[in-house]
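Trying the structure run again after the queue cleared.
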Amino acid sequence: MPQLSQNNEECLRKQFSRTLRWEQFLSLPRAEEYNANIHQATEKDKWNKAVHDVKLMGSERTEMRKRQMSATQETSDPLPGQQGVGNRGSNACCFCWCCCCSCSCLTVGNQEQRSRRASHELRRDDLPTCEESPTPTLEEVITWAQSFDKLMLTPAGRNTFREFLRTEFSEENMLFWMACEELKKEANKSIIEEKARIIYEDYISILSPKEVSLDSRVREVINRNMVEPSQHIFDDAQLQIYTLMHRDSYPRFMNSAVYKDLLQSLSEKSVEA
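Done. Tokens:
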């Protein structure tokens, strides 16, 4: 192993002694400040890079939206000489702007929107609202106390009872019963299927906020019959809700302010007459 000469050893000693002296004279706060500056510079570089990436992503999204809007305008208003291009654009994929792919996601989406719009229009026209009825007479209101059946026979009785159910947050029971009555009047098969689907989504589905309380047996029967519904598909469920209103809500209705105030007002009017 080669040995160092005296001159080389002296140079090494001087070099190491200088390094030790520098470390001794370099104060600790100054070293910490130097490290902090390096850390801040690194964090600043990272932040600038992240901002640049976000701006780049935003510009890419803006460009994508511009392309989508231009593609939509081209497909909605095709030129006379570009009829074929417009047809291809209507079937283009959501992520393609070259109008050359053959998928039909937009066509399916347009068909779904049209069906939903028709469904909402039917739903809006056929929602059970308060029935038109003349003001009940005193004798009629008195008969409501005789039985629940007599209360439900007249539109005025159903409207008054529905007003009471609204105060108990159980108005969906009356709405479901009325919707079933409307369904029984239909004879057109397509309308029956559409109304049955609407009633199922509004009052039978467990995802609906207006779901009525039914036992599992009735639900299973309805689920099986929804494949080909008839106007009597909800008869068992309607009877169950009718019984629930009779036993649970009707006694409280007779003792409620809704019924007593109506009875009192009609009594005062009859005395004045």
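The longest helix spans residues 28-76. Worth checking whether this holds up in the mutant runs.
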